[in-house]
Amino acid sequence: MKSPTLWLGRSAGQRPGSSLAHIKFSHLLTGQAGRAALRCLSPMKTFTLLLAAASLLAAQLPLHAQTGGTTEEQSLIAVLQSDHSAHDKDAACSRLKHIGTEAAIPALAELLTDDQLSHSARYVLEAMTSEKAEQALIEALPKTAGASRVGIINSLGERADQRAVTPMAALLANPDATTAAAAAETLGKIGGQEAQHALDAVLNQASGPVRDAVVDALLRCATASHDRAEFEKMYKSEKSETIRTAAYRGWIQNSGEQALKLVIKGVRGKDPAAQTAALQLAREIQAPGATAALVKLLHGAPVAVQISLIDALDQRGDPAAAPAILALTATTDPDVRLACLNVLGNLGGGTAVPVLAKFAAAGSVAEKRAAREALVDLRQGDVTTAMLQALPKSAPAEQLELGRAIGHRGDAKALPELLKLAAQGTGSVRESSLQALAELAGGADLPALVQLVTTGTDDSVRTTAAGALNAVLRRLQSNDIKPDLAPIAAAMQTSSPEVRVALLPICGRMADEQSRSMLRQSLADADARVRAAAAQVLWDTTDPKLSPDLLKLAHEAGTEDLRKLAVGGSVRLMTQEADVKLPNGERIEAFKNLLADPLDAAEKRTVLAGLATIKDTAALELTLSLVDDPAVHKEASQAAQQQTPHTFKKIKLTDQFWSEGANFGDFNHDGKMDIVSGPYWYEAPDFKKRHEYRPATASFKRAKANGDTETIPGFQGALGTNNAYSDDFLTFVYDFNGDGWPDILVIDFPGKAARWYENPKGASGHWTSHLVTDTVDDESPTFLDINGDGKPELVCISGGCFGYAAADWSDPTKPWKFHAISPKDKNRGKFTHGLGVGDVNGDGRMDLLEKDGWWEQPASLENDPVWTFHPFPFAPGGAAQMFAYDVNGDGLNDVITCLNPHGYGLVWWEQMRDGTNITFKQHIIMGKDEAASRFGAHFSQPHSMALVDVDGDGLLDIVTGKRFWAHGPNGPDPESHGSPALLYWFQLVRHAHGQADYIPHLIDDDSGVGTQVVAGNVTNQKYPDVVVGNKKGTFLFTHEFKP
Amino acid sequence: MNKKTLIGRRSFLKQLGCAAGAAAFPTIIPASALGRGGALAPSERVTMGFIGVGGQGTGHLLGGAWTYVPGGYTGRKEVQVLAVCDVWRNRRESATQRVNAHYAEVYGKDSYQACQAYNDFRDVLARPDIDAVLIATPAHWHATMAIMAAEAGKDIYCEKPSATTIREAQAMVAAVRRYGRVYQAGTQQRSEYGGYFRKACEFIRSGRIGTLKEVYAYRDGGGIFWPQRFVDTGKPIPEGFDWDLYLGPAPMFPYDGSYGAHRFDIGELNWGQHHYDIVQWATGSDETGPVEIFMEGNRSCYKYASGVVVYGKAYPGEPVGGDGGACFVGTHGRIAVDRDSLVSYPPDIVREPLHPDEVHLYYSGSHSGNFLECIRTRKRTICDADIAYRAASAVLLGGVAKQVNRTLKWDPDAVQFVNDDEANRLLSIAKRAPWQT
User: Fold this and answer.
1) Contacts of B268 in chain A (CB under 8 A)
2) Most exposed of A673, A939, A1009, B181 (fewest Cβ within 10 Å)?
3) Across-strand partners of A883?
């Protein structure tokens, strides 16, 4: 007997009898004990540790060499007989259950009388086969009482040894009910005549739980000894329905040949106990004539019994019951009917077919379902033949059911007859046969199926036959079988036009060269009907290789209808079929060809719908060619808006309003660009963690639905209801002190200060702020190198003058000096709208743009000269950011600006030269109303703008949007509230002859802009992302390029 | 509500005109009584008691993802829950309240108190007006309670594991047979999950993967152990918790704060029966068991007399099967199945629907529905006591092998290990008085 003894390392120096309670399990985990424990799965760890503890206990005693078996046992016995703790003795018993022999029994017997440890001793003794164990348990009976004794009685029950009968019989009379009941149970488990007598003897005196135990024990005895008489007696004398059911059951089971009679009597009778037992055993009883007898019971039985019997017959699985059950389907009770239908699939055969077909065609919902399943399941005898014979004779609805069933059953033997029925039969016979054929026919049957088409007498016959043929071909294809299409090809060559028309749909779906050539031939067929059918098929096809044919059809179409079909089919095939992926170049070429032909408005719209899905500049060009066509202007503009592979994914960093601008920089030097807006910078790459770099104390209160108020952090913006402004209108990022860590420049509310905040290079806490200048006027100041000194300046209005504040770069913490470039004008102030910087005249020096004109930078800035003003009404209503850029590529810088940051209008002014005179011609990008916006994009209040190459084509595009709640939800500006807060980028597309278009592409419809919008490489190194801070929160739009 | 007597309990059948005669009526409720529109009167329902309303039990009682019926048994028109039993007072009271609130709403009453809460399951079993019980107690109670429920004349739904020792499993089957009760084991995979498991077994038994050679059951064997009783420290027993009744047949020891459903489990006693029920079904072993159990690595495995070897581990590289299932390897392919998937290699093996001449196994579309239907018709459930006994045994035999860590020969008819006294001792475990098998 092998036992896990590896852990029996012995440590010297332990005295026998010492308490081992100090051994901790951690100690056990080292060494051999631990290795053994760890070798087993962890769920067993506790158990194994128990064993380990026990054997280590043994090992601690200075006895013989450890080789397991008896020697170990001796140690354990010694533990039991010593004054070791109960814990140790219990552990020893755990081990003894595995290895204990008769040698251990005396020590264990002693423990039986110890109330604390009796269970531990039983743990071992109960399972030992030795009769000495039995003896020990029996001998302990008179020495124990209460729970200990009951436990011993139970253990004797588990052992089920006859020797315990006498003592148990004596205990039946014990005044303690638990003891007496336990003794009764044990007698029941032991069984045998003696036990039974003892139980019988007290039956009438006992009461309550003791009597229940005695009765149960008698049932057990009777079961073991197959005592029919005892069961009969108990059935007749006991009162409890539970017992009587058990007794009747036992009576039936031990009545040999009389069992069936008892079953019948029980089912038929009025006694629920007998009926329950009988119905249960009706399912299992093995007796000649059982099926017939049970069938007979069906008649006249109550509904509940009928259903139970039907079920029983199903469980018995004897098909001889089928006729009776079949007949019973005529019953009026719907539940019985359904029960019959449910079992006929198992028990029934061909004879059930007509009835089942009837129910499948015309029964209730549940009956239909059951009948259909049964028709598929029938398995007694030759069901296929029966169905085929029934088919022509049945009503049409039933024929269809039979056709379906024959198909589902998958019996190929039905094929010859089905083909015959399909060929010779008419109407529903033919249809049903074809339905079955569609599911059953294989490659070998194709010629026969084709023949059904060619010999068909009219169109509907041919079409249904072709439909079945098509279904078969599809099934074969989906199972990766390549069918032989020769019979179809032959039929196409030689048959009448009508047959060709019927077969053409098949050609369109096969997606192989043979079918395609058949289709192409048909397109040129002499017969107009064939040509039309071929065109129809082509129109429907999902085979990309037929795309050229479709296009050819569109080009050569004789009639308008045909052309419409062909154009629609072409577009669908090229752009709307999920499984068809043609390369962009091929598609664009195809679209070009389509558009080269004269198309009507509807066809153009179809083409535009297809073009819209091709996100490619070449496709965009085609779309643009249709924009000015008044009939399709709207569709073309919409298509153009969608035709870009550049999209943006929105990340909302916060819904709190802290700033109307935002920017980005790597503030923590981890190589990833972070976002800054308001007093927080948000840490890349998740932007979930934010750092407060300057005090963030703003908050406002708003009312909750239940009337309480709650405090919301930040300024009141979209989370509130009133108009409010932040202390942060624009943010710029620059390393002012040149220490390699980007700092943050914040422009406050117009007219207030600008400060830059010094990056603490990883240290925590607020960043030190340095005043740049006390007053920054104009709502769109900018921060770039205007004076060409290689360092950026803050360009704004101050003291009524345009100009720029420049730092002393030897100490940029000192307030910066303002250099005016214009004379003072009292009408210029903090709320002046419009400012930009760009080289208007192309002399290499940056000029300053404003709504009323541009200020030309002189050659020298020494002593801060006044710059020459060139008036031009760029934006009399006010502007925001303004730019000078060569939009149309003619070498002259144009001016890009909005016309009213609180109204409508986005334009580019094309620079024109009249000699040396510079003037500008307006081109509208977005006008006052939608009609004036060439591509349909339309929104008010473009209060900030950025110029950036979004799509990497080398041309700068515009990013702008609607400033959300510039004057709050109830502001006077058009579309202040209720219009979507849109954010767009306008793609610059240059055409020939100095023409240019800005194609709008929507970035988002629920954010908009603030007073600043920034685009740059935040997460994407190749293409710019867009960063927005406004009253709706802070947003990052990451660039996604999906060609 | 009317007090019910034993005989004539179903006297409503008279109203339906189903039977002539005056005296007693069968205890079978016809399906017709249950289908007629409108709410069913309480007297027409199967009356139930729920023993153990922890997570699993509450799910059965009131609904939850694993019980497959929204609203649980309480929500079923054909059931009337009369008793909720748990050794935690707050659990039983909360569940009872929810049950009564449901019925109050269904019957349009302001309050409804007919469902009662019990601490001691024996009080539930003693009620003559309860037809069936659902046992969702901790594992160490299952078989003991099921036996007592059978003796009390109840039909039984008992969660897995059906038993924690082989002898206990045998006693459970014997009691169910002795009293002719309907028993459903909580191994719902034979009924649920879109029929995947049944289909897999039908395909396998129809020979679609050729001759079955090996099974990879993902989990191996398990069993039960008693912990140390004599520990120095215990915690105060929480108020409203009956620690003694929680322990039941387990030995008494100081409360240690742990009262889970599987604290005495060894190995895969909790989940194993789900897997091995399917292994048994697929191999056609519902009436028998393994003949040899052996260890491979640290997993228990076994062989059937047919030669099929069952490994208690995953099929290498096959992800399907971990969730209650197995991978079956035959001479012509293999099939893997679990609660989410049924796949085969080659793939077309499982795509083709079952033909009439192939093996059709017991169809059940709902495990709880099957239980209730069988209570009415006395039909054998899909996972009856015999099947449960053998499936649990497959797990328990592995558990014994793990404990003795050697190859064992098993006689499934004599229900004994051959020539291994120590292993045979592990077929049972002594219970604390007065609880017995």
Assistant:
1) 43
2) A673
3) A896
pLDDT band at B138 (very low <50, low <70, confident <90, very high): very high
Residue whose pair of structure tokens reads 């020539």 in the numeric block: B419
Question: A692: part of which helix (H) or strand (E)?
Answer: strand A690-692
The SS3 of residue B403 is helix
Q: Which of A114, A242, A251, A373 is best to mutate for the B interface (most B CBs within 10 A)?
A: A242
pLDDT of residue A22: 35
Mean pLDDT, all residues of chain A: 89
Residues A346, B167: C-beta atoms closer than 8 Å = no
Q: Bridge partners of B241? A: B88
In whole angstroms, give the CA distance from residue A159 to residue A167. Answer: 14
Tokens (6 digits) for A178: 């638990």
Would you say A695 and A765 are in contact if contact means Cβ atoms under 8 Å apart?
A: no
Q: Do A304 and B28 touch (CB under 8 A)?
A: yes
Q: How distant, in Å, are the alpha carbons of B59, B95, B136, B307 from that of B54?
A: 8, 10, 8, 41
Are the beta carbons of A2 and B406 separated by less than 8 Å?
Answer: yes
A1019 inside 8 A of chain B by CB: no
Give pTM, 2 decimals: 0.68
CA dihedral A429, A432, A436, A441 (to 10 degrees): 50
Mutation target for B interface from A241, A298, A340: give the one with most B CBs within 10 A: A241
Do the chains contact at A182 and B434, CB–CB below 8 Å? yes
- Where residue A928 falls among pLDDT bands split at 50, 70, 90? confident
- DSSP-derived secondary structure for B286-337: TT---SEEEEETTEEEEE-TTS-EEESSPPTT--TTTTT-EEEEETTEEEEE
Q: What is the pLDDT of residues A581-640, one digit of tens each?
A: 888 888 899 898 888 888 888 889 989 988 888 888 888 888 998 988 888 888 898 889
Q: Is B178 within 8 Å of A223 when comparing Cβ atoms?
A: yes
Tokens of A252: 């039936």
B180/A216 CB distance under 8 A: no
Q: Does the CB of A601 have a partner CB in chain B at under 8 Å? A: no
Query: Over the range A68-107, which residues count as b (16 or more CB within 10 Å of their CB) and which as e?
Result: beeebbbbbbbbbebebeebbbbbbbbbbbbbbeeebbeb
Task: Give the integer Cα–Cα distance in Å for A579 and A587.
Answer: 15
Confidence bin at A310 (pLDDT 50/70/90): very high
Which pair of structure tokens corresponds to residue B218? 């993902």
Task: Please tell me which residue, A16 or A879, carries the higher pLDDT value.
Answer: A879
Instruction: State the pLDDT at residue A616.
Output: 83
Residues A366-382 have pLDDT tens digits of 999 999 999 999 989 99
What would the pLDDT profile of A482-496 be if each residue is shown by its tens digit?
Answer: 888 888 888 888 888
How is B74-85 classified by DSSP, letter by letter?
TT-TTEEEEEEE
A443-A446-A449-A453 Cα dihedral, nearest 10 degrees: 140
Query: What confidence score (pLDDT) does residue B66 get?
Result: 67
CB contact under 8 A, A91 and B228: yes
Q: Report the distance separating Cα A870 and Cα A856, nearest Å.
A: 7
What residues contact residue A267 under an 8 Å CB cut-off, 6+ apart?
A275, A278, A279, A282, A294, A297, A301, A305, A309
Provide the pLDDT for residue A960: 97
ipTM: 0.91
β-sheet with A983-990: strand ranges across: A945-948, A957-961, A983-990, A996-1004
Chain A segment 193-252 residues within 8 A of B by beta carbon are: 212, 216, 219-220, 223, 240-243, 245-246, 249-250
Q: How many CB atoms lie within 10 A of CB A919?
A: 12
Backbone phi, psi, residue A36, to 5°: -65, -40
The per-residue pLDDT for B113 is 87
Count of A-B CB contacts under 8 Å: 218
